[in-house]
């Protein structure tokens, strides 16, 4: 793909031409194929989005569909309930006078419309799309985003705008983690206690769920529900303690307790699940039904003599066998209600039929094992958005690598794709978009584009451009930032705070700690700098690139040094500017050491540059002092990392080489 | 009021104490007075807003209302249909342990809750409000915002968030300009052609209007509808050409034609209006009904012989008398349907009863005349937000000045207040908030606060703080800006564009011109820099203050000069950075001369500083050259003004004094 196009995900085939198709207020788009209400709604949405993107009212309707500027032809409308593996390909041909989008199904046409939107840009002659021919189809059939709505609840509007974002990136599965210890989020009419006692009142009604599933279907997205069992089920047990392996009582909500596990030895458990799954199978039309199955705490089974007796009586070796027994029983129930069961790695067991799908949080080797045993699988490992990794790190995770690299073609076919996971312990409706976007775009590209599309530099360039365009969909991953900083500052002027917050990132992996308020209440405020800070600092990324350019000693060296000095001077002076605010707001007090160290690091960076300019290496003692600051900055404080520490360390290393 | 409090509007009486009331997650608020559903909803909204402002979930409910942290007591719930002049006063007493809000009516209590929200700030100990006692009541009973939804249509959500903003500033009237030449925006069930032929399909259904009126009432805001007649009525005549003074045909929409005027000589006109007003009187519960009455184009009456004959036959002098005859007939119809008629200056006529209210766009002298003749009036002159004046200019407009300053106390009583007017020729849903906010806050203060509250410096300090807090209500006056710049640039990096856009303002008064697209279509895109630029440049305001500080030659001089040089250097270099983008986007090409002149002005400013530093006056020829740039910059180009030209002119004048 030519670098002038900012398409994401990169299409399978792009052939550029010369010239462009102007888009002015006479622009029209219409379907010339068989009538399809879903596609028509998609075209209406496309025109709305094009109008928003350009700021031009687009109200002209073509007298005749075939004379529209963009004609769209889908050979079939696609399945009423979207199926895994439906044809999603499309061809988009743009000439200087006209554009044609053709696709075997409406799904492909919807994807093609998103590609068209990404091509629109202002030129000297007006808004335009380039002359181009694009033949596109996804690499993987399952391109999902998993959202946990149990740990924190997200209103429908938040989820819907994220569906819009997914559609823009051609993702096609929303995996909805609807129950966990902390909350049960679906209205059950058969067992209303589930939502009444299993949640804090925040749950989705069945009418909302139907509306949401239709909204997703309109955008080419399947909705796969997950009800996690037998572990991660405290919220169920708050409503139905009889299902539990230990006496309880149980209480939903955010408390540090994952002892709640269903009792697989009692018939009542399966009777209940049969009725429950019957109801949910009617509510969620997708063919797949996720039963979780991860991280079953052994304690309640170990300490229940009746359960241990059951294990012995049935000739099982251990709790693992007991869970396999549970899963077999469960699979029969799920299949009875015409659904295909799926679950996390832990459910894999030879006694389960091979139509079960395994979602692997363990990695490509585990995934390869799944496939070799004849099961289908998808990869979640490496795509956990809550771990706050940089986009490039997710981008580099290849489902067909590691153990999966040596699979036979037939085994490879059983790798369906992957899912990004947004676990919600530390996110709220205010911050969720910023934790999903724009990094999800990199993962979406991994799932859609050819395997050889791997250049992180190109990815970042395109991701930066896609990111602001996603704002037109109402996503708040850019707009959330300044208001959160102002809340902490309690004032309009946040210039100095922003200098600091622009170069920190939330701590990675599972290192985040929470300060619970006293007295304890339902939900910890997530209103600190660690919540406002972006998962990936673009300032730190650019600064790091500048340091590399500078140290390469090439033609760009002096320009890079000038830029480095501007940044370093600003940071060096910043703590003095920021200190009064840090003293004034309880929300910022914890960030003082970071602010001090940013100025200290900047001073070290400037000293290093001076020394390098003069070719006078600095002393080991100086080096040791500065590296102490680097070490501190690389460890979490206030749940934050100072991301300019590593590049500044490179300057220190260069100016005071180890002897 | 102590300067540490950022209250807006300034309350009537503030008595500060020492200490503060902490607000943590145990905070509760409850009504201890008689049960009132509206107040209870107001308190629930208050808790939601407090939670959003602080980022703290607030879910604790007090066991007993009287033990809430904030107790609220309203002696009466207020009228079911809010009335002009209802008591809106309140008293808010905050101690270190508790807060009490008391008010004669729920209206006052709602205002008091807004005051409380403005007091909340982060401190070193936590979120807190200061210990304080506030006795507050409005100066004027009518504190309105007029929104024109005819020239551009605004969806309900846009209007609702503006009602939220009005409530935050204690405004109490939404004057809804529902019909004009360009569009008729209300569903009439009796005359559905009005919306069908009189609009482009964008209108409010009666269900939406009822919901909106209830939403406003919940926030202490009356909704006064305006149906403009007999002029400004092309949209009506598109549906009912028989009502017209000339044969037509008529067409609604944005075309340059204001020839459409109703025929006041035909009985059919009054029969129609009687039925129409009967329907609208039922839909809009407010006691007042605005009939417009402004700017009647004389042409259709002059050129219709039957109308001229009617004027002669009835012994009228001229068209003015004919309009007075129309208004008398109309007033009887309005009164028959139990409404009080109001209209713009032009309807003032001794034959109308004195309960008619006159809204003056002509000014305080006209308003004084209204009052002296026994009518009640309100001031719109000086508060037209579409004229793009700075907030301080609106703030300085005092209803009781000019001719109104010498009124007797009784006559003064008839000045009810005022209205800010948002005419919508050049605004869209994307930009309207930025044209209303934050400047409306200054006008709201003029209407609420004591007459002696006039310091623009204090106003600006507080307005800057209120402005970002209004963002919590969903108002987009800050968030609209960057996306619009990126749309024009077609890329993420808008640094250089922003440097320019931060120092320009849309042209003032009625000097804006439109570039209509070819071929002409329904609605001109409003997607240029003149649409994105803020009505008032805070950068230019600060720069101007710095120039004044510098030229005062006081202790701050050298600090001011250093700051001036930073700005001037940035601007001087900016055109080189921006030029490629200006060449690349058709939306920005027209801004090139402005960008060039910003750099030229900055160069002149730097030369002036250098000369002043050396006490070497610059030559008259240099002065003439630079002033030519200033003169250009003070005239609209691309519908923009370069706002740093006047302060830079001061530097030029100082460095090269006229001889």
Describe the structure.
The structure is a homodimer of 659-residue chains. With 659 residues, chain A is α/β, with parallel strands linked by helices. Chain A is built from 24 helices and 18 strands. The radius of gyration of chain A is 27 Å and the shape is globular. The model of chain A is unreliable at 517-521 (pLDDT under 50).
Précis, in short:
By secondary structure, chain A is α/β, with parallel strands linked by helices. The first copy, chain A, is globular, with a radius of gyration of 27 Å.
Lay out the secondary structure.
2 copies of one chain form a homodimer.
Chain A: E1 13-22, E2 29-31, H1 37-54, E3 70-76, E4 90-94, E5 99-105, H2 106-119, E6 121-123, E7 126-136, E8 142-148, H3 156-168, E9 173-180, E10 183-184, H4 193-198, H5 206-218, E11 222-227, H6 234-239, H7 267-283, E12 288-290, H8 299-302, H9 305-313, H10 319-336, E13 340-344, E14 357-360, H11 364-372, E15 376-379, H12 391-395, H13 409-413, E16 415-422, H14 432-436, H15 439-448, H16 456-470, H17 481-489, H18 495-501, E17 504-506, H19 529-532, H20 538-551, H21 557-584, H22 592-614, H23 620-633, E18 640-642, H24 645-655
Parallel strand pairs in A: 2-3, 3-5, 8-9, 8-16, 9-11, 12-13, 13-14, 14-15, 15-16
Antiparallel strand pairs in A: 1-7, 4-5, 4-7, 6-7, 9-10, 17-18
